[in-house]
Amino acid sequence: MALITQSSWPKALLAKWRWWASVPAVRLSMLLLLAGVYFGSSRSFGAFLLSIPMLAGLLLIAVAAAIKASVKRVERTHLLAAWLLIGLTPFAYLLSYEPVQQLRFLFWAVTHYRQVAEASKASSIVVGWDSWGMAGQDTFSYLAVDSDDRLGSQGRAIQWTKEVGQSCGLWKTQRVWPRFYIVTTYTNCPYDRIEPAE
Tens digits of per-residue pLDDT, 151-172? Predict the structure, then answer.
């Protein structure tokens, strides 16, 4: 069996990619899935409105391409991949927000490592993280630190809110790192003295 050398594996990977992408149905299904991740990772009302025609149009095109590919009798592997990607798109749209926020925090932490080190010493609100809403109904989320690392429990959430000098209750929390959380307050209840995210 021939060994894959350091110089040959990129060529093998590129050849594999070309094989997968050689069928338009697969390319269009990949584009549909990526669009689902992109729009699902945003809570912006504008992004939501734009996602409806964009995803509907891409879905129709991807399904039409997959049907055309089946008529042309392309390889079964390509057809299965195209239909699988189409089927995964709704899940990608609905479930991508939290994983994307996790990745966003990791990138943010790399470029703000001093702020991370300083903030981790005590319970606090680090920075405004995200905001969304419409017609005067706005929701805000913040990057926060809980020194006890138990912000997921309701009792601790109430205690933590008092510790940081705020009155807004927590609607949702997401642990993104030990002691670091993305916390979302109830609608129209931004934190005092903390600049909300745009």
Answer: 989 899 999 999 999 988 899 9
- Whole-model pTM: value is 0.79
Give the pairing type, strands 180-185 and 137-145: antiparallel
Structure tokens at 116: 């991370």
The answer to whether 130 and 187 have CB atoms below 8 angstroms apart is no
Question: Is 4 exposed, middle or buried, given 0-12, 13-18 or 19+ CB atoms closer than 10 A?
Answer: exposed
SS3 readout for 133-165: EECCEEEEEEEEECCCCCCCCHHHHHHHHHHCC
Q: CA-to-CA distance for 48 and 32, rounded, in angstroms?
A: 15
Q: Which stretch of DSSP H or E encloses residue 186?
A: none
Specify the DSSP class assigned to residue 151. T
Strands, sheet with 170-177, edge to edge from the N-terminal-most edge strand: 124-134, 137-145, 180-185, 170-177
